[in-house]
Amino acid sequence: MENNKGKLKLYGFNNLTKTLSFNIYDVCYTKTEEDRKKYIEYIDEQYNSERLTKILTDVTQTIGACVLNIAKQDYDPQGASVTLLISEEEVPLYILDPSCNRGVLTPTRENIVAHLDKSHVTVHTYPETHPQNEISTFRVDIDVSTCGQISPLKALNYLIDSFDSDIITIDYRVRGFTRDIHGQKLYIDHDITSIQDYIARETIDRYNLIDMNIYQSNIFHTKMMVRDLNLDNYLFEKTEAELTNEEKKDISEKLKREMTEIFYGINLPKIVK
Q: Would 11 be classed as within a structural domain?
């Protein structure tokens, strides 16, 4: 006879898996090697594993889940990763696996992974520089995957606002099925026509957006690119007032080119001057 002691009991459980995936890009103009070095150092400091852990913990609270375990790691020369295992409801201590830390990070555990009982939240960062076009980029990959009644869509606006987001690609997918009380299969348990349905209006007003959805498969995809370029937001240790009109034009063209390539997923032909 199987021993179920210490296992979580799942009865009448909603088996739908809802997954929200982000790629968020921040773009910066870094003219010199020193600028690029300082930008990477700034990003590494601004988005280290400690801050990312705080963001993911807030996400967990926003969607109404509880942290079972957290793992985090900073990397050399740059980048960081954080993983949380979460549960829809708080899990009693006597059931919790001894390897789980419930989000309590102690000084003796520098490398930690976080888990949710039926769900997880992860983040990975990728700072990158491009000496040839004087552009540096910072990419954040985030996945929020849940089962049960909790929904990752509740954290959508918080995640967008947690980063300096010039380009955002978002995927949302509902997988599997659950059953109603009559045994009828349900392949989705909420209304959605577009990810944009869940994005704040003031955010939509700041971006150009494109949708590509496969409704019959419950797959939704949205791309976002910031509308207006305020150069002061893209200069590193310099202001727009210090630039000549020719420099402003040149920098704006390079920034727009980089964003366009990322947004459409293509490499534009090289410009010969």
A: no
- Model pLDDT for residues 112-124, shown as the tens digit of each residue: 333 334 578 888 8
Distance, CA of 95 to CA of 87 (rounded, Å): 13
DSSP 8-state symbol, 269: P
CA-based nearest residue to 67, from 100, 112, 22, 34: 100
Q: pLDDT at residue 18 above 50?
A: yes
- Domain count across the chain: 1
Residue 10 located in a structural domain: no
Domain of 123 in residue numbering reads as: 17-264
Residue 157 lies in a domain: yes
Q: What is the pTM of this model?
A: 0.81
Q: Taking residues 44-73, what's their average pLDDT?
A: 87
Instruction: Read off the pLDDT of each residue in 34-57 and give the average, rounded to a whole number.
Output: 88
Output the six-digit token pair for 33: 């090697």
Q: Give the CATH number, domain containing residue 231.
A: 3.60.90.10
Would you please indicate which residues are annotated as catalytic (active-site) residues?
119, 124, 147
Amino acid letter for position 29: Y
Residue 113's DSSP bridge partners are 71
- H or E element at residue 214: strand 207-214
Residue 7, in any domain of the structure = no
